[in-house]
Amino acid sequence: MRTAVALSLAARRPRLDDRPLDKRIGLVILATDHTTEVDFQRMVASDRIGVYVTRIPYANPVTPENLRAMQPSLTEAAALILPDETLDVVMYSCTSASVVIGDSEVAAAIKAAKPEAAVVTPTAASVQGLRALSANRISVLTPYTIETSRPMADYFAERGFAIDGFTCLGLTDDREMARISPKEIVAFAKEAAAPASDALFISCTAVRAAGVIAEIEQAIGKPVVSSNYATAWACLRLCGDREARPQLGRLMELPLEEERP
C-alpha cells in the first residue's frame, strides 16, 4: 500500500514583483505572418522588455479591400494581449493596412482596448525613422502589386517626401512575401535605390529585410528603413531603451524625434 505524501502550505505568501518584466510590448500581427514575431524576439525582447503577441484574422490576396477588412477586429485582438493588464506599447504589424485604414484609426481602435499604451504602426514609425535620418528624398521597394502600392506612394508624398523611385515586386500573398530570401531582398534593394535618394524604404512586415539592413546600407551607401526595423526601433525607444545597436543599421543609433534634446 502506497504511503500518502504529506503536503504543507508555506508559512507565508511569496513576495510579488509589480511585473514579470519591466516593460511590455504587445504585437497585433496577421494570422498569416511568419516574420514579425521572429524579428521582435531577435531585436527587441530582453530580460527587461517582454513581447506579447496576438493574431488577427486575415485572408489573402493582399488588396486594399482585404486589408481594410481587418479594422473591425483590431480592438478585440488588442484586448486579448494580457487581458486586464496594461501595456506600454502596442504595435499593429501591417504596413499596407495601416495606409488603407489610417494610422489614427488604427490607434483609436487599439486604444479602445489598451488606452494607456502608445500605439505604433509600421507607416508612422517609418516616417519617424526617415525623418530621424534626415531623409527628404526616398526610394521605395514593396513586395506588393501596383494597385496595393499606390496608396503607399501617396502616403509618403503627402508627408513631404520626394519619391525618386518606387519598385513593386507584384506579389499578392503575404506568405510568399515572407519567402523572399534575404539574398534576394539585398539584390532588389540595390536595384531600387535611386542615386538621388537620401534613403531607401522597404515595405511590408512579412518581408525579412530587418536582418539585412546593415548589409544593404553598406552596399548602397545610404540609410535603409524597413517596416519591422522601424517598428522595433520605435518600440524600443518608447520603452526607454536608448542603446545604440549599430550592427543592426544606422537608425538603431538614433533617438525618436521627440526624444531629441
Give a verbal description of the structure.
There is one protein chain. The protein has eleven helices and eight strands. By secondary structure, the protein is α/β, with parallel strands linked by helices. The chain folds into two domains: 23-122 and 230-245, 3-Layer(aba) Sandwich (Rossmann fold); 124-226, 3-Layer(aba) Sandwich (Rossmann fold). The strands form two sheets. A four-stranded parallel beta sheet has the order 2-1-3-4, with helices on both faces. The radius of gyration is 20 Å and the shape is globular.
Write the layout of secondary structure elements.
Elements: E1 23-30, H1 36-43, E2 49-56, H2 64-68, H3 74-79, E3 89-93, H4 95-101, H5 103-111, E4 118-120, H6 122-132, E5 137-142, H7 146-158, E6 162-168, H8 174-177, H9 182-192, E7 199-202, H10 213-220, E8 224-226, H11 227-238
Helix pairs in contact: 6-11
Spatial separation of the terminal alpha carbons: 75 Å
How big a fraction of the residues is strand? 15-25%
Number of helices: 11
* Integer tally of domains: 2
Query: How many DSSP E strands?
Result: 8
**Highest-level CATH class of the largest domain:** Alpha Beta
Radius of gyration, whole Å? 20 Å
What share of residues is helical?
25-40%
What would CATH call the architecture of the largest domain?
Answer: 3-Layer(aba) Sandwich
Overall SS class: alpha/beta
Along the chain, the helix and strand elements come as EHEHHEHHEHEHEHHEHEH
- How are the strands ordered across the major sheet? 2-1-3-4
From the spread of the alpha carbons, the general shape counts as globular
Sheet of most strands = 4 strands, parallel
Mean pLDDT equals 96
CATH topology of the largest domain: Rossmann fold
Low-confidence stretches: none
InterPro entries: Ectoine_EutA, Iso_Racemase_Enz_sf, MaiA/AMDase
Pfam families: Amdase
Keywords: Plasmid
Protein name: Ectoine utilization protein EutA
